[in-house]
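User: Hey, my collaborator sent me this sequence without any context and asked if I could get a structure. I don't really work with proteins. Can you help?
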Amino acid sequence: MRTLNTRPWGTGLSLLLVLLVVAGCGIGRRHSELECMERAMFFESHRSSRDGMIAVGSVVMNRVQSRQYPNSVCAVVGQKGQFAPGIMSRPMKSQAMPEVREAARAVMRGERHPLVGNAMFFHAASHRFSYDNMHYVLVAGGNAFYEKRRRELVTQPVPPRPIEGITRR
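Assistant: No problem. I've predicted the 3D structure and written it out in structure-token form, which is a compact way to encode the shape of the chain:
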């Protein structure tokens, strides 16, 4: 005897929910813009310094305001391959969470790291790349922040010395 599938959409819906969970979207709950900023700072700056967190947040906001990237914090932070794996789904557990929240709120209210400028990129300061279009503007919180420029416009081709203590509460 053959049974009828009374819910033909059931399998598709189940698959969709699994994909949303895997993608870090959660079920029935989306992250707020503030939470997404906290996640970027938490996982990318490793909570090492306020300057590092504010610099990461500044890059996120530069991307939000660029036509080259999505126009929301969550869409930028959740963009595949751009930030730490699992950034939208891993738990954030640390004694540093009050500092992360304060820094995220400050960036969402308009604070920017003054040396980040228009930079939209960063990488771990310990890494070196041989590209000739990376104009470095800052090293803070363990990351090197840079702008991509035409080769002839690059005046700082290597990361500068780390600078901390520029931003304050």
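In plain terms: The CA atoms of residues 22 and 67 lie 27 Å apart. You can pass these tokens on to your collaborator as they are.
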